[in-house]
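Subject: Predicted fold for TYK2 kinase, 316 residues

User T.R. writes:
Posting the sequence so we have a shared reference for the thread.
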Amino acid sequence: EISDLLITRKEKDNGKQILNLTQLSFHQIRKNEITQRAHLGQGTRTNIYDGVLRLGGNSGSDDEAEYFSTEQNNNSREMHVILKVLDPSHRDIALAFFETASLMSQVSHVHLAFVHGVCVRGSESEPERPPRPPARERYPGYPDILVIPTPGPGTASRLSRYPDSLFFSQEDKNLVHGNVCAKNILLARRGLEEGSTPFVKLSDPGISFAVLSREERVDRIPWIAPECVRDVGNLSPAADKWSFGTTLLEICFDADVPLKERTPSEKERFYEKRLCLPAPSCRELAALIAQCLHYSAGERPSFRTVLRDLTRLQPH
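User M.O. replies:
I've generated the structure tokens; pasting them so everyone works from the same file.
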């Protein structure tokens, strides 16, 4: 790493836990407080719906008001939200579903999507996700974050700086997201108007990484770090760095998903042979992405380094 300090790296402590949730903590939402509307798409073992959340009186903050569409009605608010509904056939993983909601409810960052709570209706569990314009990744097409014209090195570094500042904050706490990709970066403000900038938030990771089958992990290639395909126990902050590098490539190549034409077995061989994904034309950005996509987890740069290098790539 380029730094004024000499940095030494220690071997990973296999006995160290990434996160120890001793109890679940989230706001419980009553079923009469939500209205489920149009079906928007599917996640991993979940269905995504448009919805409305009714809140009492003065709930919410001033910061939320800038991004959340609200409507006053007899001292209450109606908030446009996205509902993530656990498929009833997967009720056996409900605990893992609740663990993710609990974690997201306890972690706060300006560029992290806010989970309002969980509604339990019979065999269905629905965490409330933050209001957003209908994201294009929920329909055939590309993620909404990538609609900005001609995404080049300047655009990529500008957009990616925002979630990277989140990872920089979480890295010090040894917290892991586990599902970083362009379709999970939600566009709260487009920033297409003159003098404005885009504002993005990273969505929740979905169901717990620990319950993913091997087939589901292979399906996440090339976003999932190679060491995590072999063993879910290898999930660490270094895995988010690999995923972030792949997400940068998505932005650079105008949402052209890497390896999208490959079969699952071909994807696995890609990792086994330690092959490299295509590089963008900007040499500095390509070098940074290559560091994030290092097959040795310990050689990937810290998010502090990534954030610094992305800042240097900003157009002046």
